Structure formats: C-alpha cells, structure tokens
Amino acid sequence: MSDLFTYALRLGDDALIAAQRMAEWIAAAPQLEEDVALGNIGLDQLGQARSLLQYAGSMDGRTEDDLAYFREEREFLNVQLCELPNGDFAHAMARLLYFASYQHLLYDELRASADETLSGVAGKAVKEVAYHVDHATQWVLRLGDGTSESHRRMQAALDELWPYTAELFESDDLVRRLPVAVDPAGLRDEWERRVLAVIDESTCSRPEASYQHRGGRSGQHTEHMGFLLAELQHVARSHPGATW
Amino acid sequence: MTVEPLWEVFVRSRRGLSHTHVGSLHAPDATMALRNARDVYTRRQEGVSIWVVPATDITASSPDEKDEFFDPAADKVYRHPTFYDVPEGVDHL
C-alpha cells in the first residue's frame, strides 16, 4: 500500500463513518428542521468520503463501493471519535464541534497540497465544514447556556468525547514523510483555541482527560465499530454486484 | 417538549429579484431560524439571500374582510398598466 493510498483512506474513512452516524439522526432529531440540517451535513460528509475513497481506489484498482462495503473492520482507518454510537442531541453537537473544527483546519491547509485531487477535495469541503462548525457552535452555545438540564447534558457530552480528540492530531511517520499530506499535530493548538472559546462562551467548563483513546488509524476500533459496519455493509454484501 | 416559535421565510432567488415567501419553520431564535431556513429552503440552490420574520409580527388581512378589501378592484380595468408598451429590455416589470 502506498502512503498516499493510506492517507486518502484515513481522511475518507473519517468522513464515511461520521456520515453514517449523522444519517442515523434523520427522522430522530428534535425537530424537522434539524432532521434536514443533519441530513445535509451527513451528505456533505458522504460526498467528501466518496471523493477520497474514489481517489484511494484509483491507486489499487478498487471502486469506492469496494472500499466502503467490502473491507473488514481492521482495515478501516478512521478515528474512534467518528464511530462512537450516537447519544442525545448534545452528544451529536459536541462530536460535530470537535470533528468539524478539526476538519476545517485540516482542509484549509490541505488546499495548498501539491496533490491536485487532495487540494481539490479540500477546496470544496472547506466551505461545507465551515457551516458544520457554525451549526455545532450555535447549538453548543444554546444548550450550554440554556436550561439547567440542557447545560448538564452539554457538559456531559463535551466531557465524554474529549478523551477521543487527541487521536485527531496524532502524528506518525506516514504524515511526516508524505509531502502532500498535512501533519495534524500542527493543527492542535488552533483547534483547542477555537473549541475552548466556544465551550467558554457556552458557560460549560473545559473538559479534562487523564486518558486519551487511540488506535483507529491503525485499524483498532471500539466495540461499536462492528455493529456500525454490519448496518453499513450488509445490503451490499447480501447482494454483491447488485445495481439499481 | 415546548414548541419553538414560528418564522416565515423569504428567499431571493437571484440578484435583481425580490424576496419571495417560500414557507415557514420553527426555530428558537432569529439566528437559528436563518440557519434552518438555509438548510430547509436553499439546499438546492434556490437562493442568494434569506429573510426570516417572526410569524407573530405579521399582520394579515382577515378572510372575513375579503368582500370589501378585494372585490371592488375587480371592475377597475383602467388601473392595469396595459395601455402602453413596455420598452424593450425592461425585465421583471
């Protein structure tokens, strides 16, 4: 596997798995308007995933569908933050704030990549995720600075997901030696500045974590990943090659 | 769950045209109403500008007043600007 293939898979898998969790919200959000908003966001993420998986597949003769539907759990390289099961609405907004803020910084820098496909995908996606950040920010502020119950739930969600954020910024040999990649370690300070500013304004307190989960980038996932993939993949695997 | 306030949504489909009423939605405040309107009413490139107005701030004519409000205009054909030619190149009149 080339470095570029692996790098495109990492970014594509993040977007694909995030999209799958977002899609679960459709018809389950607190209001119809939010169903549509989260559906739009999920489809943005799925569009990013498709472009990136197509690109990865073009390097080893596989299609985007091959990569999405016919890989095993250990072959997925997404961060664990994306695969955790949905909780309440505050949980969804906390995850979106953490993830989209990271994606926004990443895509913003990736626009300058010497790889034309990566920079093209990033150029389109950076506008999409800017809106995702805004959507999450609006809700974190309102839930955090809302009723005592919404504040309690927002704080719980921010705390619960914080130990999954360090993985987003994990650097390794691959991103350091691949010239067209962005080393995510360099995004961490600005990400913290932005996310903590939202958390402060929401009147929630800054989350702390004594332990940070890792492993997604090398295919080690939480126990929830298998169930997610079963739902994502079972139709394609039950009817291989089917078209409609 | 408490029902959030209702907002009326107006979208300008492109520069040079007026904002047109496209529907309504629920949102907790004006900022979220604008965002919801973006997601619900402009996701297929329907617009370049959005207004949201609290539905309670709209004063509407009453169906009971239909006769005196609207019927008298029915036979005033001279009020229609149909007695002169529109110059070429004037659109959206």
Architecture (CATH level 2) name of chain A: Up-down Bundle
Q: What are the low-pLDDT stretches of chain B, counting only 5+ consecutive residues below 50?
A: none
Determine the oligomeric state from the structure.
heterodimer
User: What is the approximate shape of chain A?
Assistant: globular
Question: Which bin fits the share of residues in helices of chain A?
Answer: 55-70%
Greatest contact between two chains: A-B, 12 and 14 residues
CATH secondary-structure class of chain B: Alpha Beta
Strand/helix succession of chain B: EEHEH
* Helix/strand/pairing category of chain B: alpha+beta
CATH architecture of chain B: Roll
Mean pLDDT of chain B: 89
Shape type of chain B: flat
The total count of strands of chain A amounts to: 0
The major sheet of chain B is characterized as: 3 strands, antiparallel
**What are the segments of chain A in which pLDDT stays under 50 over at least 5 consecutive residues?**
none
Q: Mean pLDDT of chain A, nearest integer?
A: 97
Distance between the termini of chain B: 46 Å
Spatial strand arrangement across the major sheet of chain B: 2-1-3
Individual helix count of chain A = 10
Radius of gyration of chain B: 18 Å
| Helical amount of chain B | 10-25%
Pfam family, one (chain B): PaaB
Protein name (chain B): 1,2-phenylacetyl-CoA epoxidase subunit B
Organism (chain B): Kribbella antibiotica
InterPro entries (chain B): PaaB (IPR009359), PaaB_sf (IPR038693)
Question: Main attributes?
Answer:
heterodimer; A: 244 residues; mainly alpha; Ferritin; B: 93 residues; alpha+beta; Ubiquitin-like (UB roll); 3-stranded antiparallel β-sheet
